[in-house]
């Protein structure tokens, strides 16, 4: 796999980016929220988005796809289905009904905790980790740490959007986690 890919150079990256809605001052003042729901609402755009990920990973040896609560569930579950793999949800604290392990992390506007079922994957499992975007990197790193604590290998982390000005993609890569994103919002 290519290390450190964040591209507006990918075919269709601009098409995808142009269909992401920006909501100013949500969930709090000063935050420019990148809303992927328009990507999901349009059947052509949603199919293209899924196909970008499926084509990237279809020849990789993977055991499971892990998606991060909540928008990572949408893409992650579809990609897992298309790759004929199982899906593992990484949830916000208090949402999983069985024995869990937890990891706290910092957001650009606070802190949070994610959890994973203690039996979600096995030692040696090769995992694709998916979320909708990389902002400060805290969520992605916390999720990867949970998987690693269970003995799994995060083959690559993937997201639709990189927000490089927040520094998260650099932090993810500094943790030796390969990262793929479809598009970024640098300078936007």
UniProtKB/TrEMBL annotation:
Query: Which Enzyme Commission numbers does its entry carry?
Result: 2.4.2.7
Report the catalytic activity.
AMP + diphosphate = 5-phospho-alpha-D-ribose 1-diphosphate + adenine
Subcellular localization, as worded in the UniProt entry: Cytoplasm
The pathway to which it is assigned is:
Purine metabolism; AMP biosynthesis via salvage pathway; AMP from adenine: step 1/1
Q: What is its main location?
A: cytoplasm
One Pfam family of this chain: Pribosyltran
Of the GO CC terms on this record, one is: cytoplasm
GO MF annotations in UniProt: adenine phosphoribosyltransferase activity
Q: Which residues form the Phosphoribosyltransferase domain?
A: 54-165
Q: Which InterPro entries match?
A: Ade_phspho_trans (IPR005764), Adenine_PRTase (IPR050120), PRTase-like (IPR029057), PRTase_dom (IPR000836)
What's this protein's family per the entry?
Answer: Belongs to the purine/pyrimidine phosphoribosyltransferase family.
Q: What does this protein do?
A: Catalyzes a salvage reaction resulting in the formation of AMP, that is energically less costly than de novo synthesis.
| HAMAP family named among the record's database cross-references | Aden_phosphoribosyltr
Q: Describe its partners and assembly state.
A: Homodimer.
Name of protein: Adenine phosphoribosyltransferase
State the organism of origin: Deefgea piscis
Q: Gene that codes for this? A: apt
């Amino acid at each position: 796999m290519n290390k450190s890919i964040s591209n507006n150079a990918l075919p269709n990256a601009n098409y995808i980016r142009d269909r992401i809605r920006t909501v100013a001052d949500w969930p709090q003042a000063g935050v420019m929220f990148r809303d992927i729901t328009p990507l999901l609402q349009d059947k052509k755009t949603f199919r293209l988005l899924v196909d970008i990920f499926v084509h990237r990973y279809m020849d990789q040896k993977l055991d499971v796809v892990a998606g991060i609560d909540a928008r990572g569930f949408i893409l992650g579950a579809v990609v897992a289905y298309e790759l004929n793999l199982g899906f593992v949800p990484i949830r916000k604290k208090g949402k999983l009904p069985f024995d869990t392990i937890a990891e706290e992390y910092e957001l650009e506007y606070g802190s949070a905790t994610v959890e994973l079922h203690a039996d979600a994957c096995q030692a040696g499992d090769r995992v694709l980790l998916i979320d909708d975007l990389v902002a400060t990197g805290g969520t992605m790193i916390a999720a990867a740490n949970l998987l690693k604590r269970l003995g799994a290998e995060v083959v690559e982390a993937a997201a639709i959007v990189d927000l490089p000005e927040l520094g998260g993609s650099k932090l993810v890569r500094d943790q030796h986690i390969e990262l793929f994103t479809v598009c970024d919002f640098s300078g936007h």
